[in-house]
Amino acid sequence: GENVEQHPSTLSVQEGDSAVIKCTYSDSASNYFPWYKQELGKRPQLIIDIRSNVGEKKDQRIAVTLNKTAKHFSLHITETQPEDSAVYFCAVSGGGSNYKLTFGKGTLLTVNP
Amino acid sequence: GAGVSQTPSNKVTEKGKYVELRCDPISGHTALYWYRQSLGQGPEFLIYFQGTGAADDSGLPNDRFFAVRPEGSVSTLKIQRTERGDSAVYLCASSQAPNTEAFFGQGTRLTVV
Fold first, then answer.
1. Distance CA A112, CA A15 (A)
2. How far B55 CA lies from chain A's nearest CA (Å)?
């Protein structure tokens, strides 16, 4: 089955700095790569996603890049703000006819004022 | 409703008892997922429905766990002979189609004592 590795597990940055979180996956047939943000005690919410026919996608301060050859994708947050502090999860799905969404273990991002 | 609804929000049960957890997806969403999340971990896949059928149940840990979605809308996750290790937050998510944004419910926190 699909194996998703996420790094780092914790990340602390100063307000205004950039943050980068990386994920690797094992199934080369996977074709959908969302990122979710989960604040303490709340449900995960989608912040950005990318499909395998696109190498990069940007939405304001958030961007995702995908390298299908290397089977890894990354989340980039620029000009971080304290409200960006949360746990971020990458996920992968779409291998073959299997649309199961497999999550990484998460990255706790802390943005220090 | 406007979002994915899960009931109950909290459930405390005694070891060995049977529990049912309910998920009301967003109207019209054909894909429905169940996940289990322990503290500090990513959502762990349990089962995925496409319509009424279980398209992938490879994440169910053992035969004590079972889920149904008889009419392609509401789903129930059933756990027999509960064990303390079953304690976790059980999350349900739905999406309009496979490989599109999955919307999560607020979860059911199950505690087995």
1. 6
2. 8
Instruction: Please answer whether residues B89 and B77 qualify as being in contact, where contact means their C-beta atoms are separated by less than 8 angstroms.
Output: no
Q: Which helix (H) or strand (E) element contains residue A49? A: strand A45-51
Q: Between the CA of residue A87 and those of A19, A27, A108, B18, what are the distances in Å?
A: 13, 24, 4, 32
pLDDT per position as a tens digit, B45-104: 999 999 998 888 999 999 999 999 999 999 999 999 999 999 999 999 999 988 889 999
Closest CA to A102 of A29, A16, A53, A42: A29
The answer to whether the Cβ–Cβ distance between A101 and B58 falls below 8 Å is no
B41 close to A (CB below 8 A): yes
Check the CA dihedral B108-B93-B50-B45 and report its sign.
negative
Is residue B23 within 8 A of residue B10, CB to CB? The reply is no
